[in-house]
Amino acid sequence: MPEQRGTRRGQARPGGAGDGAHRTYSVRARRSRSATTARNNRNRFAVGRIALTMLLVAAGLKLGHIQAFEASALSERAERQRTTIIDIPAERGSIVDRNGAELAFSVETRKLWVSLRQMRQTWAEQARENPGSGENFDTRAAEIADHIAAQVPDLVTEEELLDAFHKDAAFTYLVDDVEPTVADEISERYPEIGFEKRAKRVYPGGELAANVVGYANWRTESEQVSEHNIHGLSGLEFFRDEDLVGTPGRQIVDTAQGTDVVIPGTERDVQAATAGSDLELTLDSDVQYELQRSLGAYVDKADAEAGSAVILDARTGEVYGLANDHSFDPNQPPDSSDALANPAVSTPFEPGSVAKVVTATAAIEAGLVGPDSTLAVPGSIKVADHTVHDAWPHGTQDFTATGVFAKSSNVGTLQLAQRLGPDRFLAALTKFGIGQRTGVGLPGESAGYVPPREQWSGTTFGNLPIGQGLSMTVVQMTSMFQAIANGGERVEPRIVSAKLAPDGSRIPEPAPRTTRVTDPKTADVVKDMLRATTQDGDYNYSGTAPEAALEGYQISGKTGTGQQVDPDTGGYSDRLHNITFAGILPADEPRFVVGIWLDAPDTTIPEGNSAAPLFREIASYLAQRYNIPVSEESAPTKRLVR
């Protein structure tokens, strides 16, 4: 039988015995593969369990290490990230006058701030959670700005606050000088708003003694000074800042993560602040007010560029008043530093004839003349190649020594100076303190100028004895006459009498230096000679300043007219002058010495030609304020020209 197509030899036909064997083989193969897969899975699970176990063991070991060895350090690091040490401002000391009246003091204020980053996050979340409320950062900022501006309208506007809220910053200050109760109300109503405790310097007298007291304020960060205390920027506030400022304390606070926002209730003190000391001045506020008022009015009447005046205690050298015609309000300090200047101590000038007191004192002490000695005085005198004239034309006349100074004769003064000689004259200048700072205790004090002896030319000694070619401040000038009023002993003027410590103790300033200028007898003779300056009468009896006389009191004084340098020519000007006056009240029992300087007044009018009327006004006030007894007798009238 022929074979069927499609079959090969040895191939089992369907349904035959070979088909069953094939099926048996397939089942076995599948079972083998399943077993292999299961074994592989079990192996993978085992490896995974081992890896996981090792990971957990490693994590446990790391955790154990951290807990055992690093926990303290990590905790400390976290604490440092959360805590901040801030300064606690110290209370700045006050400045008071001799009677305890406050000229400068500090009041507690608040400076409002906001963490813009946190506020944006808070109100963005609020807007997401309440999409229909209409409340978001912008509406909240507008509400807060409106409220703050209404509470402190004199400090900030709503527009300024809105600008602050919308600046590109994480944190910003909003407004300073807010009263504590107002700040508390704002912060309670709007928790976003925080505040710093600050202080504000207050000057209740405004311009009163401002050139002396100066002003203080918060310094800018660019000046690299702590922002946690007010610091002085001019006057005594600057000069005695170390005494006034105190020592800030330190406080630990917790701040919200990533911000400067202090978490309420986390404040704890590390070190309390120590308040600064108060300064007690020698000034009398009432005297200072009257001096500023009268000087300013007189400078206006004299059409002067400026003016300064000083009142010293005749015995102690204490400054009762020190004024300039220009002042400023330290509650609103000016931008210009010129307004902060104190010309009474910082601006020297050529004083003119008021400096003749040096020649008078040295000549009397040397025994060259007595008060009634007679000198034949011509109308002019030649010194080297320079001719010096008296202020009025006259031929040779017999002047008494008293008359030389009471009538302010340049020629007579130079005659006495030539007898004295330049070395003895220079020694007298030095004793009077000319060319040296007085040590009054104010910043910017000038020493004035006396040319060194080796630089004197032939004409130098024709200028110095009559108050030209040297310069001094009005404080130096007044100090010269204080020495005459005080029996020949010059006491260093001073304006601070004591520090008042926070514990209430009073610490007096070091005793002022004293210099024996001349002997008491000479000082009294010179003082009595200068009473004739205020005499009135005909030519033979009249001094240069009868307008300085004060009824009931003996007055000693000296006038001065010094030429200023013409800025255009560099030589002495015929129209620009320093007008000066120094006087003693009363001459028989000196209580006060007053010095006045007028800068370039109009000398064609009476007020501009003499400061004597201003002295009388000031002396009259002092006599009334301090109930100074009238002189027991009038000064004897002296004949000045024989």
N-to-C CA distance: 191 Å
CATH topology title of the largest domain: Beta-lactamase
Mean pLDDT: 89
CATH uppermost class of the largest domain: Alpha Beta
Main β-sheet description: 7 strands, mixed
User: What is the CATH superfamily label of the largest domain?
Assistant: DD-peptidase/beta-lactamase superfamily
Strand content range? 15-25%
Radius of gyration from the CA trace?
45 Å
Low-confidence stretches: 1-18, 220-226
CATH architectural type of the largest domain: 3-Layer(aba) Sandwich
Which structural category fits the helices and strands? Answer: alpha+beta
Sum up the overall morphology in one term: elongated
Count of DSSP-assigned helices: 18
How many strand units? Answer: 23
Domains (count): 2
What portion of residues is helical? 25-40%
Q: What key attributes describe this structure?
A:
642 residues; 35% helix; alpha+beta; 18 helices; 21% strand; Beta-lactamase; 7-stranded mixed beta sheet
Describe what you observe in this structure.
By secondary structure, the protein is α+β, with helices and mostly antiparallel strands. It is built from 18 helices and 23 strands. Strands 2, 3, 4, 5, 10, 18 and 19 form a seven-stranded mixed beta sheet that branches. Helix 9 (285-301) packs antiparallel against helix 18 (612-625), helix 11 (357-365) crosses helix 13 and helix 11 (357-365) packs across helix 16. The longest helix has 66 residues, at 17-82. The termini are far apart.
